[in-house]
Amino acid sequence: MAAAAAAPCVVSSTKGSLREDLTCAICCDLFREPVMLACMHHFCRPCISRYWRGTQGPVTCPQCRKEFSCRNFQTNYLVAAMVEKVRATTSDTYIQNLKKQLKETLESYRLRRDDHNNNITRDKGKMDTIKRFGADLQTRVKGEFRALHQILDDEETCMLEQIRREQEEELEKVERHLEALRVAVRELEENMRMLQQASAATENTVLTELPQLRPCVQVDVAPEFDINGFSNKYMAPLQYITWRKMFKSLKPGPSPLTFDVESAHPSIRVSRDKTVAVECDGMILHMDHDKRFLQCVNILAAQGFQSGRHYWEVEVGSKPKWDLGVASDAVDRHSRIKLSPESGYWTLRLRNRNEYSAGTQPWTRLQLSSSPERLGVFLDCEERRVSFYNADDMSLLYSFANGPRGKVFPFFSPCISGSSQEPQPIKLLHYPPVALSG
Ligand SMILES: [Zn+2]
Ligand SMILES: [Zn+2]
What we know:
By secondary structure, this protein is α+β, with helices and mostly antiparallel strands. The protein has three domains: about 5-90, Zinc/RING finger domain, C3HC4 (zinc finger) (Herpes Virus-1, 2-Layer Sandwich), CATH 3.30.40; about 135-250; about 260-430, Sandwich (Jelly Rolls), CATH 2.60.120.920. The chain has helices at about 1-5, 10-20, 45-50, 75-90, 90-200, 225-230, 240-245, and strands at about 35, 40-45, 60, 65-70, 75, 270, 275-280, 300, 310-315, 320-330, 345-350, 355-360, 365, 375-380, 385-390, 395-400, 410-415, 425-430. The strands form four sheets. It has a seven-stranded antiparallel β-sheet with strand order 6-7-18-9-14-15-16, with no helix packed on it. Strands 8-17-10-11-12-13 form a six-stranded antiparallel β-sheet, with no helix packed on it. Strands 2-1-5 form a three-stranded antiparallel β-sheet. One zinc ion binds near residues 37, 39, 61, 63 and 64. Belongs to the TRIM/RBCC family. It is found in: Cytoplasm.
């Protein structure tokens, strides 16, 4: 019974009392072949037989002492079955198994709980990260807008100050004219007074000569106030003019790149202003240059970057094929190389008119909803990020988070289209087309 006592208490108490009920009062053990006497008491068949053995005449129930004239008892199969059940469920093996099962179930629950607890910790960590990133982004966005507001505030202050100054100048001009007129009037009045005195004197005496008069100052006609000239430059389209001026202050605004002709593959022709590059059938004879791409039809911009944030826009039109992005200064320009960050290229590419990919290894196919004709490239040297935008609507196309270290150059490949059609160029966009002064 010691093993049974170690079992869970609910089971133990039920089993305990049941076991007592199924215990023979003679041998004090579980019934063996239980039989029932007419008084309804149960005993083991061997026990009651042994108990009655040697008794002459009527026998008695060992429990209630009731007398029976004949030795009758009935086999109780129901009790026998229950005894067998209790015996089985209180055996050492059964209890060991039960304990093992309990332990295993407990262990599996403990593992699941620990697993859930770990996930809770992970989720909380994720929430913290999201909150931190969100707050960080909000701070950055606020900063960017503060800079824009500052540009507009400065522009407004400057313009209002200019209006105030011009207004002052115009007022001063009129003020000076007014003063001159006042002086002239005073002088004229003085002369008039003298003439009136002289005229009054002629009634008594003979006037021999006119009184000595003061010379009168000649006052010019009032300067014309040019209302149109004053207001025109502050009228429409003031917002557009201001917006154009803002371009100079944007950080980063679109960089006006030019192609580096010395880096161009011999099959690339570059325009005189170095903003248009196009593939050509023949090979252009150049001075040999270490910077020149000799195997791939590539070209770099003349402007390299190794710090700060930079953005530029490129027009690819409806070219069926191109690569563009940034290339590390150190790339091997004399051999054929697969474009990937590992080989110093962070690029976006188009093949077959509508197959866009990011230049990872292997390529990452991009599903674009439209075919951009202009692309924006953003380079953040500090955060090592290279991002590509559809410059038609400024939607993000792809972003490399493992950007370059060290100096990089804007990179372009007009590719050899191989079609019979006139090859289409890659254009570096300068926007706005003409910088405004002031
Ligand atoms: Zn017995
Ligand atoms: Zn009895």
